[in-house]
TrEMBL record:
CDD domains for the chain: RHH_NikR_HicB-like
Transmembrane feature ranges: none
The protein, known as: Type II toxin-antitoxin system ParD family antitoxin
UniProt record similarity statement: Belongs to the ParD antitoxin family.
NCBIfam families (UniProt xref): antidote_CC2985
Keywords: Toxin-antitoxin system
Pfam family, one: ParD_antitoxin
Gene3D superfamilies membership: Antitoxin ParD1-like (6.10.10.120)
Length: 88
């Protein structure tokens, strides 16, 4: 097993200690292992969702719409989801 030394602001350290004191984790190592597992899961889920999206897009065939129409639709959808602001 590897050993890491990390530095963090006091406020973050206080947060970690509070999680341990609340009984959510047995020690600092458990807390950080949980963070890493969650990050790995989130990334794997994002990759899986992206692959699924690409598979669906490929299976849908070639669009009859022009590239500007497709981009306009994508921008509008992104704005509606709060992922894009303003013009562009």
């Amino acid at each position: 097993m590897s050993r890491l030394t990390i530095s963090m602001p006091d406020q973050m350290n206080d947060w970690v200690e509070a999680q341990i004191d609340a009984g959510r984790y047995g020690n600092v190592s458990e807390y950080f292992r949980d963070l890493v597992r969650r990050d790995q899961d989130r990334r794997e889920t994002a990759i899986r969702e992206l692959r699924d999206m690409l598979d669906r897009a490929e299976a849908s065939g070639i669009s009859q719409r022009s590239l500007p129409e497709i981009l306009d639709t994508a921008r509008n959808e992104a704005r509606q989801k709060g992922l894009l602001r303003g013009q562009g």
